[in-house]
Structures are given as structure tokens and as C-alpha cells.
Amino acid sequence: MVIPDISSMMAAIGGLGTASFSLVDATKVGPAGGISNAGFNLIERAVAQLFPSASRTSSPASSDERKLLDKLHGNWINGVALADQKSIAKTLIKNRLAPDTARTFAAATSVDPNVLADAAACLAKGAPLAPGHNDVLGRFDVSLSAVLDEGYQRADQRYRNWSRVLAMIFAIVLAVVGGLAVYADGSVADYFRNGKIWVAVICGVIATPLAPVSKDLTSALAAYVKFAQALGK
Question: What share of the chain is helix, strand, coil (3-state, %, to 5)?
Fold first, then answer.
């Protein structure tokens, strides 16, 4: 008799986790993508090292910095694989390397500003690069990857943490309300007095790790599709 009870309890907790995930996912209809927007400010902070005036809240909609951030934000809230997001961000930023941006880029990546500016001018004119240019461009590439990697990793951690917190809140509320709905052997006051509400709260907390995170699933599916396409070639 114990085993069926445990099995039923685990099935109920799993269903609770799925329900809380569905509610977390539903918050995406909110402004800026709801819960999916969590953590993007850290990516914006990383980009601001290269574009100090870049901001989705204060930059003009027509500015190049705003367009860059809007593209990165679209990839973020849609759950594009993290490695692909970093690669896209690096490409978009490197495409904006020019003599007038080289000194700011150099300060953010700790390379020689004069040499980077000279290299950017050569690239703009289509002129051959000197050996020193290739060296500084290589170090710029590595440093830029490190800056973006830190921003994206911190952003991903914050997104996961906030998703779990929100899922836990939903799971606890659903568990308490569900427990109250099926509690029929006493008054509502007894439900809160005799400790059964704490059983519901514990079930809600346990269900939280079982709640899938939508962006994780989206990223995994996207990676699988790319892998399948590569095999098909």
C-alpha cells in the first residue's frame, strides 16, 4: 500500500512541476519577453564596455548601438543556443570595428589602441595588413570572446535562478490551493492549523527542480536540429 502511495505522490509532484513550468512560460507574454528577459542586462553591460552609450532604454531606436542590442535581445529571449549567441554577438561587434571605434574597443580588450586603429583603417580600405596588425587583431578577438563569454555566462546563471524562483512560487501556490481543494475531512481553518499546509508547501518546493526551463529545452532542441542537419549533409 505504501508503494502505490509514493508512486502517486511522485506523479503528483511531477505534474505540479510541469504546471509551474507552464505558468513560468506564460509570463513570456509580458513586456520585453517576461522571464526570458532575465539576465539580459548583464549582456548589455558587457556590450557597454565596447559601446559605452549603448542601452535599450536610452539609446535612440535608429542608433547603431540600439539595433545591435535589439538583435542580441531577440536571440536571448528566443532561446538561441548560448554558443551561437556569443558567436553572433562577436561577429556583429567585430563588423563594427572602424578607426572611430577602435580606441574604445582597444580599451575594453586591453590591446594597443594605435595599432588596432591602424588595422581597422587598413580593413576599411582593403589594404594589406602588417604583421603587427594580425597580432593585435588576434589578441582583440580572444579578449572580445572573454568579455562576451563572461556576460553571457552570468546572464544565463541569472536567468536560470530567476526561472527557478518563479517556478517555486507558482508550485507552492498551486500545491497549497490544490491541497485546500482536496481537503475534505475538516474545516479550512484546520487545514492551516494542523500542519497539512506545510505538506503542500514541501511538495511545491520539491516540484521546483522538476520544472523544466523553457529556454533550456529550446536551446537543446535547436542544437539537436543543427546536429541532425549536419548528419544529413
Answer: 80, 0, 20
